[in-house]
Amino acid sequence: MPLPRPNVRAPAFLDARAPSLRRVRRIVQAFPTQDGSAHVLIEGRRLVNFCGNDYLGLARDPRLAAALRGASSECGVGAGASHLVSGHGREHQALEEELAAFTGCERALLFSTGYMANLAAITSLAGRGDLVLLDRFSHASLIDAALLSRARLRRYAHRDWGAVERALERQRGAAAGEAAGAAPARLIATDGVFSMDGDLAPLPQLAAAAHARGAWLIVDDAHGLGVIGAQGRGTLEHFGLSREVGVLVGTLGKAFGTFGAFIAGSAELIERLIQQARTYIYTTALPQPIAAATRASLAIAQRESWRRERVLALTGRFRAAAAAAGIPLLESATPIQPVVLGTPEAAVAASRALEQAGLWVAAIRPPTVPRDSSRLRVTLSAAHTEDEVDRLVAALAQILAAQARA
Ligand SMILES: *Cc1c(COP(=O)(O)O)cnc(C)c1O
């Protein structure tokens, strides 16, 4: 007997009338050179990748691959168990200590992904009856974490720290009226560098609000670590903050070019996560060779500060040339440089035209961003050349002019 078919409305992405919203995966067949370039081979064509997060050009560095191979011959590949059973190895331990030193925190704890680290941070610190405040442009994993926590979720307008202060103040008034008992926990969570816009969270103001009202501040610095701050220590270093922020989430698959994530904070916080965080406890530990490759990457990123300087110089070059060519830019000083085109159709058409010119920039559409702010999310990398950046600006200018005429 056939199974009954649930009578649900087809979601928008399956609707034939909305092909511009349908997501397709491209197969990266190969990296045509081993010279540290940002080139990829797709459908037999060589493209310059302007939509990755490999900001420092480390993902394909042979020294990372050598560290990975070395560790795999000594430790094998899979960890074989979760960290709390028998999966926690010496490469994990060493990487945690190095990440704590790098971020200036007492301790750091490894996670398999940033998504899981954010789930851990929020669900371990907030529960039913508590309050979570999120920037409207926060990463999807922070939103999912807040929903999973069962706390009350309030999303404030992008970068509106005044709204955060008011929400904390109102909630304190409400809590004072409640019966005796532990005061509800309050959490503010934000990207450090916003992933689709490239601008920075107002961390000094958020840290002051959190401090004044006894709230936690969680900063997800997936796109700041390794890239900004005088020594690449991220958005906190950029603002001269450190201990003011209780919970720092970092990812290892972006500037550090490998895979995985971590939470850094006080020894007390890390112990609490080890005891409570379900995305830490109930999952297989990251492979040790990945941890070994990340240790190599972290050391290189710190030693070779020219990588950071180079990606920021290329960012400046892109902005200056784009401004001169009349390409509209957002207020971003980071390697994330979105070009907002409006409709999903315009973004998809521009992405296709760039591909014809040998340049790969994916179109970012709803639900990742609001419909009328569909965009090309251009990202710069230390692996790009000046000439490639200039070619991108020239192609963009031509495509935008053609769209304006149409
Ligand atoms: C990429 C990203 C994550 C998720 O990290 P993964 O390790 O890829 O799961 C979390 N937060 C932000 C802001 C990100 O950009």
Q: TL;DR of this structure?
A:
With 406 residues, the protein is of the alpha/beta class. Helices cover 42% and strands 16% of the residues. Residues 113-115, 118, 139, 141, 191, 195, 220, 222-223, 251, 253, 261 line the site of pyridoxal-5'-phosphate (PLP).
How is this fold's topology laid out?
Blueprint lengths: L27 E3 L8 E4 L2 E5 L12 H14 L7 H5 L2 H14 L3 E5 L2 H12 L5 E5 L4 H10 L2 E5 L4 H16 L9 E6 L11 H11 L2 E5 L14 H5 L7 E5 L9 E5 L1 H10 L1 H4 L6 H16 L2 H19 L11 E7 L1 H13 L2 E2 L2 E2 L9 E6 L6 H20 L1
Parallel strand pairs: 3-12, 5-6, 5-7, 7-8, 8-9
Antiparallel strand pairs: 1-2, 2-3, 4-10, 9-10, 11-14, 13-14
Bound molecules: pyridoxal-5'-phosphate.
Pyridoxal-5'-phosphate binds next to α4.
How would you characterize the overall build of this protein?
There is one protein chain. This protein is α/β, with parallel strands linked by helices and 406 residues long. It is built from 14 helices and 14 strands. The chain has helices spanning 62-75, 83-87, 90-103, 114-125, 140-149, 161-176, 203-213, 235-239, 267-276, 278-281, 288-303, 306-324, 344-356, 386-405, and strands at residues 28-30, 39-42, 45-49, 107-111, 131-135, 152-156, 186-191, 216-220, 247-251, 261-265, 336-342, 359-360, 363-364, 374-379. The strands form three sheets. It has a seven-stranded mixed sheet with strand order 4-10-9-8-7-5-6, sandwiched between helices. The protein has a four-stranded mixed sheet with strand order 1-2-3-12. Strands 11-14-13 form a three-stranded antiparallel sheet, with helices on one face. Helix 12 packs parallel to helix 14. The mean pLDDT is 93. Bound molecules: pyridoxal-5'-phosphate.
